[in-house]
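Consortium newsletter contribution from the modelling node. Members have asked for a concrete example of what our holo predictions look like. Here is one, prepared for the S-adenosylmethionine complex that several groups have been discussing at recent meetings.
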Amino acid sequence: MNTLTTTPLAPLLDRLFAEAEATSPASIPAATALSPEERTRLMRSKTDYLAFYGALKDMPLAVSRETGTLLYMLARGMGARAIVEFGTSFAISTLHLAAALRDNGGGRLITTEFEPSKIARAQANLAAGGLADLVEIRQGDALKTLGADLPDSIDLLLLDGAKALYPEILALVESHLRPGALIIADNADHSPDYLARVRSPASGYLSTPFAEDVELSMRLG
Ligand SMILES: C[S@@+](CC[C@H](N)C(=O)[O-])C[C@H]1O[C@@H](n2cnc3c(N)ncnc32)[C@H](O)[C@@H]1O
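And here is the predicted structure:
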């Protein structure tokens, strides 16, 4: 059984990735108004992320197709049953992870997003993919929504929200990560503090850059 490459999920992902490619920043006035320097500053800000992502609320900002496939393979290969995701957007990454849960025999995926319009689109996509029963979307700032009621033993954490918050979100989830848990951080080069932490020999992780823009880390104990 392979949920990722069969109907209804495969054609749904084809459509969502095609839409994501067509939604360039040039079509969003709030995005074109930002210089590259300002965009980088906002992406790394611990205080301006609400306004930044609010201005980009019509953009999917999704993982690449390659990263999506990687997410499915990692979650499927490790037999993940409990997954946490920071940054839902339209649920493109969520669909890959939930498909792995389905093929692993079931499980629980907690994801979080503060933009209500994005949550509505994510819910519709999860329903269309036949995966809504596996996913709990927590509405609000992840600093709050991931602060309580997490599974005791988390297999996989995807970090794909405000980059500057990666260290804080890892700190919230860390005590729930089982030995061998994987953490995938997208665009982690925008979070030097996070990279310093997971790459420090004393941190309790093995960590390596993977592909162009992903940091893959494993909890050791
Ligand atoms: C890069 S997009 C996520 C893309 C998604 N993982 C995918 O591949 O389909 C980042 C999302 O995180 C949300 N976000 C950023 N910071 C957040 C926070 N502190 N709490 C909740 N959501 C946040 C943004 O609104 C945005 O939709």
